[in-house]
Every structure is written in structure tokens, then in C-alpha cells.
Amino acid sequence: MTAAPVRLPPHASGMRIGLFGGSFDPPHEGHALVSRLALTRLKLDRLWWIVSPGNPLKDARQLPSIESRIAAAKKILRDPRVAFTGFETEIGAHYTCDTLEFLHAHCPGVRFVWIMGADNLLQFHRWRRWQDIARTTPIAVIDRPGATLKAANAKAAVYFKSARIPESEAGMLAVTPPPAIVYLHGPRLERSSTELRAGTRS
Q1: Of 103, 128, 126, nearest to 114 (Cα)?
Q2: pLDDT tens profile 17-45
Q3: For 46-89, what is each residue's pLDDT tens digit?
């Protein structure tokens, strides 16, 4: 029996596609702000929200279903350039390195950019094969409350210091050979998903 093909959002060789991965529990306006900032400043053709089965560094037992999180995300951001996908479950990927390896193998010619918050950069060195991630995929680090000053001194930031490109050249990130990292600053939402969850459960 032949396995069903993995359902990926529309893509084509030469397209610049941002990859915004996370638990999105719950998705909120801060995620939408990041998406709009990345689309504009990185000159992306598309942006994919990759709604994950769960963060390996966090307890995922209380996570709502991927379907419910995707449905909630679609209410937060309505933009024809943005797609919402849970394909990591289909390919059995639990780590970003596996997700990116799959995409690079199955989407030849697509210019992928990994998008992460500055708070995630602080623990990026704990991600599986984090150096390989940076060496295969350009990374955009979005400023987050409380992480602005710390991010520049993160272990991964120091390790790949020479790969940083000026924010004024962010529009070239997708076509810059990795490792390539840019830091973006823009409108921010002070509340996090963690705070929002606490508010709904109190």
C-alpha cells in the first residue's frame, strides 16, 4: 500500500517562503504581528504557520489538537499569503531539523527562511542539530519583550556572529547563502501565549 503524499501548502521553485513554527497555544495577535513584519521586511512571497505536535522542550500533554489550533489561527490572521499547516504530524517530525531536512528535500528551489522569536534564540543551542539548522536555512530573529538585550549574547548568536547581516538588508535574507541571520524589530505584543493561557484558566 502506497502512503498518501504529504499535504504541503502551495509552493514553487524560486518562491521565498517564511516558516513560522510553534505550538500556537493559543495563537494571538503577537503571532500575527510577527507574520506581517516578516512578510514585509523579508520580502516573502508566502508564510507558513507550522503548527507543531508539541515542543520537545515542553510538556505537550495538555496541548489542544492541531486542528483546533489551526482553526483558531485562521481567525487571528486572514491573509492570502499565509498558510496554516500541521504537516509535521504527517511526516512524523518532532524536531525542527527533521522538518527542514524534509522541506529542503521535497521542495527543490524554494527559498525557505526560518522565523523565530528572540526568546527562542536564547535556547536555540538546546535544539537538536541547531548548528545544522543555521547552516542550511537562513534565520530571521524577531524582537520579543524581555529578550532584546539577551538575544545578542545567546550562545547561538555568539557562535554564528559572523553570519549576521544588517537589518537594512533583511529583504535579501531569503537569497543569502546560510548561515545567515538577521534581527528584526517592529511592533510587539507584550503578552505571550503562556500569559494568555493563564488568563483563560484563572
Answers
A1: 103
A2: 999 999 999 999 999 999 999 999 999 99
A3: 999 999 987 666 665 678 999 999 999 999 999 999 999 999 99
Burial class (CB in 10 A: 0-12, 13-18, 19+), 150: middle
Identify the CA nearest to 33 among candidates 175, 178, 143.
143
Closest CA relative to residue 115, chosen from 37, 190, 175, 28: 37
The amino acid that residue 62 corresponds to is Q
What single DSSP character describes residue 198? H
Q: Determine the pLDDT at residue 145.
A: 75
Measured CA distances, 151 to 4, 154, 155, 164 (Å): 41, 5, 9, 13
How far apart CA 202 and CA 198 sit, in angstroms, is: 6
Q: Which residue has the cell 510553534?
A: 22
Q: Which candidate, 58, 54, 57, 119, places its Cα nearest to that of 92?
A: 54
Strand partners, 22: 51
Q: Which of 140, 126, 121 is nearest to 185 (CA)?
A: 140
Retrieve residue 194's grid coordinates: 503562556
Report d(CA 169, CA 70) in Å as an integer: 32
The predicted-structure confidence for 104-117, as pLDDT tens digits, reads as follows: 999 999 999 999 99
